[in-house]
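Researcher: I'd like a candidate sequence for this fold, 643 residues long. If you have to choose between options at a position, lean toward the conservative one.
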């Protein structure tokens, strides 16, 4: 979830007074980092995944599945190996927003060997085992994006009731106890975002209208403490939610790549940005919200609304008087500009920037594109600040910069090296939803990493106007987008990605650069019209040496991607919706009952543990994954034994 500073959290009024201080010193810290590290070269490819998990408690007698609020009990134990003998830690564990969540990553990043693709899934399996060994009877760890009945009565254990009057969020549905309280950041963010906004966050997701769904669909929330004011932002025919926890309490799959230098990092940032909506649609896994079937498949807009701290002025609902800017998006949304010179001509949406911050960076020698990117991030206020971190050494610290950088949660994140670190320039790929099984999560991870290798090896160009990426992000979240939607995508990927070619193509209309294609056509190809991403990856793999087991594993992963994209295999969202609507207890009213929720989650648990087969999702999920690279391969590739 970003920067986890320790200390005493400040209230919103205290934080607001220091906002200019944080921005001023944050820019100074970035300028210092940039000037120190802009010429850094030769970092090798390193990459890794992050998966967020939920802790679920099954009550088999009462047929209930509830979220277990025990993350703060488990994390200190999970982190023992890392603290006592970090070289031996195969997994690293961090807290997440909710007290029913944990985040796991590999103990060490993966490298440039193709053989690393064969250890990803094994490491994910090991993470599950580490947590499972600490769980109580009937407690399970699930890598699901959204708990179907999050916010319903009795959704967690121990059962606690929300406090819409005194809690950090003032939520009618989500109690403070479900926030991870062992670190003050999360509750502070919840409170400060609400107070900065001037009212509760408002999340409205279109409800799936089934044959017996009331029309208009409108809930009576009075029994939950709504006095007509607390639920005033609920829209008809929408599932209403009112707390940060409904967004940040969902899980995802993310990847981070280290580039060889800043130029390559900026290239990867830009080239992967158009892939974000494609992968969001392909990994869709959250069609149920607060016990109701939604008419959407993905979490993205939910999280965006859950941390939307913009005031009414900033949202354009009132004239600007006390705020500095009118801001078009939440601080959790898709990127607003490309960073590479090749991407500049596709920056076709107006960018709101902090002009003073921009000019300071330009005066310090930072180029226009990077300066405007950072200046755009710095139109925001800090929403979490600790008293111990107010005064910093700008030559050695970067916490003020990271304060704002890490609370701009966008589809891609451009990450400078930390001060005094061996870590290089990195990019983070953030849109993917968490999948049920380690096989699926590993497949999507390896697909994206392979795609980065293909982009850099062949010099591919995925760039399209930013406005079309934004349009794709909205299409990606629609119900069954993989089957029914078309997405803007560049039709000629092999066009030279250089400043000269950009200059030569200035006269080409942007609408001629991209065309609308289905996910299946983008991934698998469209005859002579478009080669497809998987054929490009296959071509790349045929040109490099790879051992037989790794080749087999990669083949199985790409087969899953191919079949999900074509619709031959369902997305998790489609499968979940079908499971619910075909359940014998389902009344055709869009409501997911306690019994349906229990049956759905026990089935998902069985699928992830391979005790239940699900050919609609996975027709062949057996790879040859191993926990380490075999010695003969490691020695042949001159890879250290720590691989």
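Model: Candidate sequence:
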């Amino acid at each position: 979830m970003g920067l986890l500073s320790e200390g005493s959290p400040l209230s919103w009024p205290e934080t607001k007074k220091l906002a200019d201080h944080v921005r001023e010193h944050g820019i100074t810290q970035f300028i210092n980092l940039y000037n120190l590290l802009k010429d850094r070269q030769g970092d090798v490819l390193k990459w890794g995944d992050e998966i967020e998990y939920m802790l679920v408690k099954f009550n088999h007698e009462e047929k209930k599945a509830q979220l277990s609020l025990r993350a703060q009990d488990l994390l200190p134990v999970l982190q023992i190996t890392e603290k006592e003998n970090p070289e031996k830690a195969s997994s690293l564990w961090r807290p997440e927003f909710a007290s029913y969540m944990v985040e796991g990553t590999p103990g060490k990043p993966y490298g440039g060997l193709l053989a690393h693709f064969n250890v990803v899934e094994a490491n994910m399996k090991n993470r599950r085992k580490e947590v499972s060994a600490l769980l109580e009877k009937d407690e399970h760890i699930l890598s699901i994006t959204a708990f179907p009945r999050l916010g319903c009565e009795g959704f967690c254990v121990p059962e606690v009731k929300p406090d819409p009057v005194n809690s950090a969020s003032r939520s009618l549905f989500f109690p403070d106890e479900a926030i991870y309280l062992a670190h003050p950041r999360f509750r502070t963010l919840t409170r400060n975002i609400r107070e900065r906004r001037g009212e509760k966050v408002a999340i409205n997701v279109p409800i799936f209208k089934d044959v017996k769904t009331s029309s208009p669909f409108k809930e009576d929330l009075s029994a939950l403490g709504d006095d007509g004011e607390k639920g005033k932002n609920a829209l008809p025919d929408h599932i209403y939610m009112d707390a940060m926890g409904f967004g940040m309490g969902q899980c995802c799959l993310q990847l981070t790549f280290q580039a060889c230098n800043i130029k390559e990092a900026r290239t990867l940032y830009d080239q992967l940005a158009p892939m974000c909506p494609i992968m969001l649609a392909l990994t869709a896994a959250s069609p149920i919200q607060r016990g109701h079937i939604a008419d959407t498949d993905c979490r993205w807009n939910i999280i965006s609304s859950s941390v939307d701290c913009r005031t009414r002025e900033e949202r354009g609902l009132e004239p600007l008087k006390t705020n500095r800017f009118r801001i078009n998006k939440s601080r959790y949304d898709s990127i607003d500009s490309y960073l590479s010179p090749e991407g500049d001509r596709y920056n076709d949406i107006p960018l709101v920037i902090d002009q003073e911050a921009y000019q300071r960076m330009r005066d310090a020698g930072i180029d226009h594109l990077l300066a405007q990117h950072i200046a755009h991030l710095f139109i925001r206020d800090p929403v979490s600040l600790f008293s111990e971190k107010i005064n910093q050494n700008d030559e050695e610290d970067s916490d003020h910069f990271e304060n704002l950088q890490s609370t701009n949660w966008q589809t891609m994140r451009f990450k400078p090296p930390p001060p005094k670190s061996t870590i290089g320039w990195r990019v983070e790929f953030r849109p993917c939803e968490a999948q049920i099984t380690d096989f699926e999560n590993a497949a999507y991870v390896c697909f994206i990493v392979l795609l980065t290798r293909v982009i850099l090896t062949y010099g591919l160009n995925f760039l399209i106007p930013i406005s079309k990426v934004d349009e794709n992000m909205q299409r990606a979240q629609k119900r069954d987008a993989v089957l029914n939607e078309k997405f803007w995508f560049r039709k000629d990927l092999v066009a030279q990605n250089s400043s000269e070619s950009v200059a030569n193509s200035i006269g080409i209309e942007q609408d001629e650069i991209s065309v609308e294609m289905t996910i299946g056509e983008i991934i698998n190809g469209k005859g002579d019209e478009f080669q497809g991403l998987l054929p490009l990856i296959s071509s790349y793999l045929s040109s490099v040496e790879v051992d037989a087991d790794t080749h087999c594993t990669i083949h199985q992963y790409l087969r899953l991607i191919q079949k999900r994209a074509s619709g031959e295999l369902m997305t998790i969202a489609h499968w979940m919706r079908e499971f619910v609507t075909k359940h014998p207890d389902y009344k055709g009213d869009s409501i997911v009952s306690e019994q349906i929720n229990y049956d759905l989650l026990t089935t998902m648990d069985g699928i992830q543990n391979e005790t239940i087969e699900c050919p609609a999702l996975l027709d062949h999920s057996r790879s040859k994954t191993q926990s380490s690279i075999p010695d003969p391969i490691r020695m042949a590739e001159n890879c250290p034994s720590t691989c």
